[in-house]
Amino acid sequence: MVRNRGENENHRKFDLKEHIQMDKKIIGIMGAMPEEISGIVHLLSNKDEKEIGGRKYYSGLINNVKTIVVFSRWGKVAAAATVTTLILEFGITELIFTGVAGAVNPNLKIGDIVIGHKLFQHDMDGRPLMKQYEIPLLGVTYFECKETQRLNAEKIIRHLLSNKYLKDVIHPNELQRFGIHEPKLHIGVIASGDKFFANKKDKESLLNILPSVLCVEMEGAAVAQVCYEYQIPYTIIRTISDSADENAKFDFSSFIKSIASVYSTEIMKLYFASI
Ligand code: ADE
Fold first, then answer.
1. Nearest CA to ligand 1 atom 1
2. Is 108 in the pocket of ligand 1 (CB under 6 A)?
3. What pLDDT is stored for residue 122 in this prediction?
4. Which residues is 192 bridged to in the sheet?
5. Residue 99, Cβ neighbours under 10 Å: how many?
6. Is 255 in the pocket of ligand 1 (CB under 6 A)?
């Protein structure tokens, strides 16, 4: 078959892109709290840092894989701006987000972990122009995590939450202090929005319209939207820190320091050992 010049070039470019993506993995890691990323930053060798838009992007190698770690700040806009920088400035090929969330489903307990299978923006409502939760111009009401990412995260987190591993990395007294006994992994729906849920009434109204929601947070579905638009595989991992009601204002910082940040760092160690 004779191709004209343009066709040949397109063909060559396509091959080149595939080649680059296969060989040059660059992992972006975002955390919703500074304490959560500090343990991960410590895993970096050949470390460098660059400040863009008020955020510090730490780059380096973990197990020889190029990695960029950043504190996203809170809320959908902050998270979307951060992940866009990771994609455009640092060329990440995959994104992992770790943070905490409030439990909405009563089966979830503090210390459990959720992998976002479907991510909704619970405050997106363009009615009557479109359906509730529909993302303008994208025609979808939620974003779905790819199976490869989900299965890999599942394997890693099951290992972390196994009794022996967990007790090796977090002292049993600390687990007890936060009432954590045999924490579980859940895979399902996460709802994100610019709202901290701190009363039962708000939590129940959300559950009335989105009964499948497991937990709420403020960044995941925004990160998922940007990754979807740029076709970057992503994983959203959340540790349950509170029950999204009047008790939600408990001591976040000690939970994050003693539990959530250890989970995040250990998840990353296991992740990099798996690739
Ligand atoms: N992140 C952690 N807990 C939360 C809550 N109760 N509401 C929203 N985001 C959260």
1. 101
2. no
3. 98
4. 121, 217
5. 26
6. no
Would you state the pLDDT for residue 144? Answer: 98
Claim: this prediction has a pTM higher than 0.85: yes
CA of 210 to the centre of ligand 1 (A): 16
Specify the residue for token string 């929601």.
213
pLDDT, tens digit, 9 for 90 and up, residues 128-183: 999 999 999 999 999 999 999 999 999 999 999 998 999 999 999 999 999 999 99
Task: Grade residue 23 by pLDDT with cuts at 50, 70 and 90.
Answer: low
Is residue 196 lining ligand 1, measured as CB closer than 6 Å?
Answer: yes
How many angstroms separate the alpha carbon of residue 90 from the centre of ligand 1? Answer: 29
**220 C-beta closer than 6 A to ligand 1:** no
* Predicted pLDDT of residue 47: 98
Residue-range domains of the chain with CATH: 25-273 (3.40.50.1580)
Q: Is residue 119 within 8 Å of residue 234, measured between CB atoms?
A: no
Helix orientation angle between 34-41 and 261-274, rounded to the nearest 10 degrees:
40
Q: Which residue's entry shows tokens 């299965």?
A: 151
CB 8 within 8 Å of CB 49: no
